[in-house]
Structure formats: C-alpha cells, structure tokens
Automatic annotation (TrEMBL):
Protein name: D-arabinitol dehydrogenase (NADP+)
Family: Belongs to the zinc-containing alcohol dehydrogenase family.
Domain of life: Bacteria
Coiled coil regions in record: none
Record key words, sorted: Metal-binding, Oxidoreductase, Zinc
Family matches, as SMART domains: PKS_ER (SM00829)
Length: 340
C-alpha cells in the first residue's frame, strides 16, 4: 500500500509499505479522509514527540478492512472514526488517572503509523462506529475531541465573557463548544474575513477584524473592552499573541493556551500581575477518552462543520497539502484522500 513516510524531520516520500494486519484486539481501517492540522507542521519539523520513521496523520476516518480476534463492536465495511490516542492504563501516571500523560502514550500519526496512508491499524477500543455520519463530518471527530478536552480543562463559568484569538478550524470548533457550553458572549478576533463570516454563521456573538500584528491586535481589543474578558483564548499557536492575553484578561479571569506554540518559545509574564489580579493560566494538551462526546456533538448537529473543508488532495500531493495549510490564507481544514 502507499503511505507518507518520514525518515527524519523535513524528509518524506510517498512510498510502498506493507499493509498492516489486525492482531487480537485490533482493527485495520482503509482511510478515505485524513485531516492535516497545525500539529502536522510541528511534526514535519521533528517536534511534538515525533518518532521516526513516521507516517503522520492523526485525524482519520475510513472503512473497516479487517478485525482481529475479540473485536465485535465494528464490522468489515463499516465507516468508523479513529481516536489516535491510547494510554497503557498501567504506568504511574495512568494509575493516578492522568491518562493523557501516560509514560507509554501511543499516538497514531505522532509516534506510531497514522492516517496519511491507504490503511492503518488501531487498538479496537479506539475505533468508533460512524456509519451514520458523512466522511467529511466524521473526519472532524478527533479535532473536536481535542476541543471537548479543552472545555473540560477550562471549566467555563456560566455567563463568562470569552475572547478567542484566531479563527482556524480548531478555533471555530472550540468557539461553538463555548457557545453551547455556557459562555454569555463569545468574541472572535482574526485577520481573515471569510473565517470571521463563518464564525458569525456558527453563532459567534461578535467578530473583530484584526491584523497579524499581535500588539496592534491587542490594542484593538483593549479599546473594544477596556475592562478585559473573563476568559482569553489563544488558538493561533503564536507566542506573540499569547504574550498579550494577560493584559486583555479581566481581574480573576483565565488565560487559556489552546494553540500549540513552538517548544522553545518564551513570553514575558508579570508574576505580580498574576498575583494581584488572581489570574489563572491554563493549557490544554491534545485529548484522550473524549471521542464519544465529540461524536455525540457531531451527531446532534449543534456543532457544525459545513464550510470548514476548503482543500482536498490525493496522497501523492501530501507535500502540497502541508504547504497549503502553512501558507494559503484561503485554507481552513485541508484533507488528504488516500483513495484518490
């Protein structure tokens, strides 16, 4: 079968590899949609605990090709969504309930072969029936699961006034969860008009056109709301943006770091400001065990994905897909179709 294979950071090829088979408690899925996201850009550079050689792709849906012994909840030919994240359940972190920080964390597309391939093999308990969803809805199950985990971490107070900076795919998914999860108002700031229009169509209360200059954006938002926001959220993954958030956060408010910055990025922070105004700073890392709720949201129709997919590429054009996500301002969710 064909798969994207990295032998080291920034060095990949689409090549023939052996198709996986299903052992006991495993499922082989023929992938027909795999999402490209900002994490893949970090993996391309060797970040985010990438293990080489690597076949990336952590947002996958497809059709079951083979089931191993002991698997009864999915059948051959059924559409499924794949949760790429698995914890061992036995290490010290797992024994404390910290499954997301498992010492033997398995992440398809990060430290194990993922979905930028014609087939992948997954632990069966991480494969979810999705035959009631269209492929281009089911493919959002993993990024939406990350947003569900983010809501768990945030612990949003009902009626909170929330600012989201950035209007990429993850931002638009998270904004919808904020709206349905108790926010009194959601404001979204971003530089791209069509993304803000999509946010409005999803119910975001207020959209603010800004530039890509973080300090100029902060001045615009500070003038808009001098008292600050109860919660400020970065979904851009830009450290310069994160650095502006404490000053935009109201007293006793929360700075929420949702986007992934570069590992070596640093920002200035006033400990006195955090102390005096009782600011809370929270981060949200990936997800584990949130896929069932993500799929429930997608099935409900309350979390919308229409308009999010902007580009589709065959497996052979993976490099173009990656560059489109990186540099094309008209892109939102970029998909790879290994069947094309």
């Amino acid at each position: 079968m064909r798969a994207v294979v990295y032998d080291r950071p920034r060095s990949f090829a689409v090549q023939e590899v052996e198709r996986p088979s299903a052992g006991p408690g495993q499922v082989v899925v023929d992938v027909d949609r795999a999402g490209v996201c900002g994490t893949d850009l970090h993996l391309h550079e060797g970040g985010f605990f990438a293990a080489f050689p690597l076949t990336p792709g952590h947002e996958s849906t497809g059709v079951v090709r083979e089931v191993g012994d002991g698997v009864g909840h999915v059948r051959v030919g059924q559409r499924v969504a794949v949760d790429n994240a698995s914890a061992c359940g036995h290490c010290p972190e797992c024994s404390r309930g910290n499954h997301l920080f498992c010492e033997d964390f398995l992440s398809l597309g990060v430290n194990a072969p993922g979905g930028f391939a014609e087939s992948l093999v997954s632990p069966a308990h991480k494969v979810y029936p999705a035959d009631d969803l269209a492929a281009e809805v089911a493919v959002f199950a993993e990024p939406l699961a990350c947003a569900v985990h983010g809501m768990d971490v945030l612990g949003l107070r009902p009626g909170a006034d929330v600012l989201v900076v950035g209007a990429g795919t993850t931002g638009l998914l998270l904004a919808q969860l904020l709206l349905h999860g108790g926010a009194g108002r959601v404001t979204m700031a971003a530089p791209t008009a069509f993304k803000l229009a999509l946010a409005e169509s999803f119910g975001v209360d207020r959209v603010v056109p800004v530039t890509r200059d973080a300090e100029a954006t902060a001045r615009t938002l500070a003038a808009l709301q001098p008292g600050g926001f109860d919660v400020t959220v970065d979904v851009t993954g830009a450290a310069a943006v994160v650095a502006t958030l404490p000053a935009l956060t109201a007293t006793n408010g929360t700075v929420f770091v949702y986007g992934m910055c570069d590992e070596d990025a640093r920002i200035p922070l006033s400990p006195y400001d955090v102390f005096r105004r009782q600011l809370t700073v929270r981060g949200s890392f990936a997800q584990v065990d949130c896929m069932d709720r993500s799929l429930a949201w997608l099935r409900s129709g309350r979390i919308r994905t229409d308009g999010l997919v902007t580009h589709r590429f065959p497996l052979a054009e993976y490099g173009t897909a990656l560059e489109t996500l990186r540099s094309d301002p008209t892109s939102l969710k970029v998909l790879v179709d290994p069947t094309a």
